[in-house]
Design the sequence.
C-alpha cells in the first residue's frame, strides 16, 4: 500500500526544466507551492530533449517510481520536435504523434492508476527565433490535441491560448515570468476541471 504525499511529475524539455527556476517564477515552482505538504512535485524537464529522446528513457522512469507510482504526470513536449528542417532536434510530425502515444501507453501500463495531462507546445514569436515557426508549432499542437482526444487524455492547448502574446516569451520560444504565470494558471485550471480529486484544495496535508 502506497502511503504519504502523492507524486506529481512534470515531464518535458527546457521549458519544463526552466519551470524549476524561481527567478522567472517557473510554473513548476508555483505548482510546488500549491501542493506544499500535500504532494511532491518532481521536475523531469531536460533541455534540448524531444519525444524521440524520452521514449527510450521510459524504463528508467518505471524503475525510478516502482516503489511509489506518480498520481499525475504532465507531458509537455513538442517545442523541440517542431524545430524546422534541418535542425537536428526536428522530429517529423507523424513520429511526434506516435511518440506521444507510446509515452501515454507505456507510462499508463507501468502506472495504471496514474492520470495524465498533455501540454501542447506554445506559440513561437517568428521575429525572434529562426529555427522555429509559429505555423509549424501549430501543427504539432494540433497533433497533441488529436492524440489527447484519441486517448481520452485532457490537453492544455498553450498554442491556442497564448496566440498573439509575444510578451509571454523571453526569446521567442521559452516562457518568461509572465509566460510561466500564465502556464501555471492554465495547468492548475485543467487539473481542477479534469482531476478534481488531485486539486490542491482537495488533498489533505500529509505533514
Sequence:
Amino acid at each position: 500500500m502506497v502511503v504519504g504525499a502523492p507524486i506529481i511529475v512534470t515531464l518535458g524539455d527546457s521549458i519544463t526544466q526552466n519551470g524549476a527556476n524561481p527567478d522567472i517564477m517557473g510554473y513548476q515552482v508555483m505548482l510546488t507551492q500549491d501542493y506544499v505538504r500535500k504532494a511532491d512535485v518532481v521536475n523531469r524537464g531536460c533541455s534540448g530533449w524531444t519525444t524521440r529522446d524520452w521514449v527510450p528513457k521510459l524504463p528508467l522512469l518505471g524503475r525510478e517510481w516502482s516503489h511509489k507510482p506518480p498520481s499525475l504526470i504532465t507531458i509537455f513536449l513538442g517545442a523541440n520536435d517542431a524545430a524546422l528542417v534541418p535542425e537536428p532536434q526536428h522530429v517529423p510530425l507523424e513520429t511526434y504523434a506516435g511518440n506521444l502515444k507510446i509515452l501515454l501507453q507505456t507510462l499508463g501500463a507501468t502506472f495504471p492508476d496514474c492520470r495524465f495531462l498533455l501540454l501542447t507546445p506554445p506559440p513561437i514569436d517568428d521575429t525572434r527565433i529562426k529555427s522555429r515557426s509559429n505555423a509549424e508549432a501549430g501543427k504539432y499542437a494540433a497533433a497533441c490535441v488529436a492524440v489527447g482526444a484519441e486517448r481520452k487524455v485532457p490537453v492544455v492547448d498553450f498554442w491556442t491560448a497564448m496566440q498573439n502574446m509575444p510578451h509571454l516569451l523571453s526569446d521567442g520560444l521559452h516562457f518568461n515570468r509572465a509566460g510561466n504565470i500564465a502556464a501555471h494558471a492554465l495547468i492548475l485550471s485543467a487539473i481542477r476541471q479534469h482531476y478534481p480529486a488531485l486539486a490542491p484544495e482537495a488533498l489533505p496535508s500529509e505533514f
Q: What stands out?
A: The CA atoms of residues 20 and 116 lie 20 Å apart. Residues 7-202 form a domain with the Rossmann fold fold (CATH 3.40.50.1110). The chain has eight helices and five strands. The first strand starts at residue 7 and ends at 12.
